[in-house]
Each structure stands twice: as C-alpha cells, then as structure tokens.
Amino acid sequence: MNLASTLALTAVTAVVAATATGLVVTPRLDARKKRIGEAHTARDTFGTHLITVLATCTLLEQTPLDVPDWTPVLRDRMKGERERWLQQLDDATRWMVDNVAVYAGSWPLQRHKDFAVSYAASARGVVLSERDEATKRELLLALTTPVQRQFFGFWWTRARHFAADQQAFSATLARLNSEQPPTP
Fold it and tell me: Is the pLDDT assigned to residue 64 strictly greater than 90?
C-alpha cells in the first residue's frame, strides 16, 4: 500500500465512523439527555409544589376566618383569598398525582419511589376528603414536612431526621387509614 491509499482508507474509515456515530449514537444520547432533563425538571416542580403546600397551609392557618373589626368588603376579599389558597392546594396535589411516575421514577432507590408515590396519593386524598379545613391543613403539614425534608433538605438534615421523618409520615398515614369516612 502506498501513502495515498492509506490516507484514502483512513478518510473513508473516519467518514463511516462519524456517520455511524451521528446516526446511531448521537440520537440515543440526545434522547437520554432529554429524558434526564425532564426527570430533573419534574423533581424541581415536585419540590416547588411541596413548598406551595407548606406555605399555603401556613397562610391558611395564620389568617383568621373573620375579625369583628373587618368591613364587609375586607371580609369578602379575605374569603376570596382563602378560596384562592385552597385552589392552590388543589392544583399542587393534582399536579403531584398526575406526574408522580415522572418524578418518583427518577430516584434510584425503591424506598424513595414508594415514599413519593405514597405522599402524592395521600396528600391528594386529604385535599379531596370531606374533612374540615383545619384538619386538612394539619394532615397536609404532617405529611408534607417529612417528605420535603427527605427529598429536598440538606444531606445532613436528611440523615439526621431520616428515622423521625419516616416515623412521622407512617403515623400520619396510620391516622388517615384509621379515620372512618363520614356517613351520608
């Protein structure tokens, strides 16, 4: 073989390798990158909705239903604001249930997946239940606080509170499961 044929063979090999990589490997890597990006976006959105539940429950808890000094206009505005906050709870828990497969499935450990699925279903059930508003707030806070800390807290906070968070979450689930539904 002479130099020209060696260079030609090298060029053809490079073109074939680049074409094969572009046709086979690159699309798979791009698809994987997209799936990983979507999973991380869903995780971030899950975290945002957890904070929304915590903040909204706190707002509802700290905002009185009625103050004697309020004018009728202010009373109506506050009632509207509370209804808006309750709608935020509804929207947040609906999103979490609707997208649980995306964000829960992105964690490597089965216990994390189970924790996220159990939380989403339980929180949605609380919002849809016929419980009074104060009980719903109490249950949502009891469910959400350990979940938020375990998924989005600093690693040292997660480790330090792991057993307590699991126990608190399990106790709240047991309470939910033991409550009798209201009779019509």
Answer: no
Q: How is the chain classified by DSSP, letter by letter? A: --HHHHHHHHHHHHHHHHHHIIIIIHHHHHHHHHHHHHHHHHHHHHHHHHHHHHHHHHHHHHS-S--TT--HHHHHHHHHHHHHHHHHHHHHHHHHHHTHHHHHTTSSSHHHHHHHHHHHHHHHHHHHS---HHHHHHHHHHHHHHHHHHHHS-HHHHHHHHHHHHHHHHHHHHHHHHSPPPP-
CB 54 within 8 A of CB 148: yes
Residue 139 has pLDDT above 90, yes or no: yes
Identify whether the C-beta of residue 132 lies closer than 8 Å to the C-beta of residue 151: no
**Sign of the CA dihedral running 45, 77, 57, 114:** negative
pLDDT at 182: 54
Question: What is d(CA 50, CA 169) in angstroms, rounded to the nearest whole number?
Answer: 14
Return the structure tokens found at 35. 């799936």
Q: Which of 126, 114, 137 minimizes the C-alpha distance to 176? A: 126
* Pick from 1, 180, 132: nearest CA to 10: 1
| Burial (Cβ within 10 Å: 0-12, 13-18, ≥19) of residue 96 | buried
The angle subtended at Cα 89 by Cα 130 and Cα 170, nearest 5°, is: 70
